[in-house]
Amino acid sequence: MKINQICPTALLAGAALAVITVGGPAAAADLTGIAAPVEYQSPWQIRLRGLGVITEDKGYVDGVLDSDLSYSDTVIPELDISYFFTDNIAAELILGTTYANVMGDGSLTAMGRIGKTWLLPPTLTLQYHFTDLGRFKPYVGAGATYAIFYNQDADGVQDMDIDNTFGAALQVGFDYMIDDHWGWNVDVKKIFLEPDYTVTVGGAELSGKAKLNPWLIGTGVTYRF
Hints:
CATH architecture of the largest domain: Beta Barrel
Family: Belongs to the OmpW/AlkL family.
Radius of gyration: 31 Å
Organism: Jiella pelagia
Distance between the termini: 67 Å
Oligomer: single chain
Pfam families: OmpW
Largest sheet: 8 strands, antiparallel, barrel
CATH class of the largest domain: Mainly Beta
Strand order of the largest sheet: 1-4-5-8-9-11-12-15
Keywords: Signal
Shape: elongated
Protein name: OmpW family protein
Order of helices and strands: HEEEEEEEEEEEEEEE
């Protein structure tokens, strides 16, 4: 049989065989529609931190010259829950509770401890995570908190009432991932928190502002599901 008499079907079959042979397994996978499996990563992440709460120690009583306030610093456990909308964008809910001794300062120093209050400030931040640095994954965030003051006990006064209030939050931190799930976290937040309050002294009701504005400095364990 002459060359120019070779069946066109045979030529097409030979060409297809050559493509599969040259392209190898990848080409064969493409022809069959089978793609390489993609590893699934959950959008949920939790962290457990030890947290230092360092207050600004400022405040005043309305109408009292040189009045000031100070507050005790504490160390507490903290749990946060994160949800990743994308590899870079996440929301984080921060949960923890602490207490503060409220003390007179400036012209109020002689009053000593005015009282004690517990504080629950659930804080929600929206974060941007940098993902091109390997195991080192820094992030920045901003959001809001709602501070709930409870179990308030007066000491140097007859009564003390600190108002619940909203505040803003800024955040910076990083995770260093040991493997796909476990990591070490360092986190710093600044909470802008200046609640109003009232106290009763000698039957007279006084009001003012407690400028807590705490720094929250923590470190702990990260787990990505």
